[in-house]
Amino acid sequence: MTALMDLRIDAHQHFWRIERGDYGWLTPETPALFRDFEPRDLLPLLQRNGIAGTILVQAAPTEAETAFLLGLAAEEHRVLGVVGWTGLTGPRAADHIAVLAREPLLVGLRPMVQDIAEDDWLLRPELGPAFQAMAELGLVFDALVLPRHLRPLEHVVASHPALSVVIDHGAKPAIRDRTWQPWADDIARLARYPNTRCKISGLATEAAPDWRPDDLRPYVEHAREHFGADRLLWGSDWPVVTGAASYDRWCEVILQLTQGWSEAERAALLGGTARDTYLTRRGRAPEGGRRSC
Asked: Cα–Cα distance between 60 and 129 in angstroms, integer?
């Protein structure tokens, strides 16, 4: 019998319906993405690659979209949990988060920090009660940040040690420009905090159009060196990833990049850490799937 800890979990994927009208970043100028993406599109990819389940992540800064995603998750057992969105700065944000948390499939919240004009937004003191509520309710803070946000993010991590923080897409280092600093030092500093995790996702999208796996390797290995594989999560970032690679290709690449890792390290990256991070207190357990290495 396949052990639960060995099941593959895609820790970061999206669904959307264009007609909803709350995806301001999606335009006809990106035709590959400017269409609906729903469970029927993803399920064959999961089956082909032995993925037992996914974490579905918001793509619009609206509670309406979060409700839409939770509805999809309720109908599709391979969606193990939803990272949604709500405002975190209102005077009753903590109370509102408590109401949202009544939904057991809600496993986290994600403000779209990368799209907020104020670089130091994470330093706002009014965010404190929201982060405290998330920690108490077992909700993960998914940090959609860019390298310039890593210093402010450290303040959040240090101020809320009970809050589980996942850095999406490795904070999107500028791989296409081969830029290393200050991203490398800032990531290493954040990794010192035990409440942080890092997603190995979205990296191909940050690379040059003719990228090769070795272009990504230094960034993956740097994250492994400082976080350890047991605090890394693999995610596809599907369908956004299709601008740089197919789902199948990204699965092949992550196996190639981790070829020299131990079985335990691969198991953590490809499913174990996602389970421990998102599904210990909330969400649903995966069924079936393939061993992660």
From this structure: 23
Tell me the CA distances in angstroms from 106 to 38, 58, 218, 242, one per residue in order.
18, 11, 33, 26
pTM across the whole model: 0.94
Residue 268 is which amino acid? A
- Confidence (pLDDT) at 152: 97
Indicate whether 155 pLDDT > 60: yes
Average pLDDT of 16-35?
A: 92
Coil/strand/helix, residue 156 = helix
Helix (H, G, I), strand (E, B) or coil at 237: coil
Q: Tens digit of pLDDT for each residue in 77-87?
A: 999 999 999 99
Q: What is the 3-state secondary structure (H, E, C) of the chain?
A: CCCHHHEEEEEEECCECHHHCCCCCCCCCCCCCCCCECHHHHHHHHHHHCEEEEEEECCCCCHHHHHHHHHHHHHCCCEEEEEECCCCCCCCHHHHHHHHCCCCCEEEECCCHHHCCCCCHHHCHHHHHHHHHHHHHCCEEEECCCHHHHHHHHHHHHHCCCCCEEEHHHHCCCHHHCCCCCHHHHHHHHCCCCCEEEEECCHHHHCCCCCCHHHHHHHHHHHHHHHCHHHEEECCCECHHHHCCCHHHHHHHHHHHCCCCCHHHHHHHHHHHHHHHHCCCCCCCCCCCCECC
When pLDDT is averaged across residues 202-211 and rounded to a whole number, the result is 96
Domains of the chain: 4-278 (3.20.20.140)
Phi, psi of 223, rounded to the nearest 5 degrees: -65, -40
Average of per-residue pLDDT across 240-269: 96
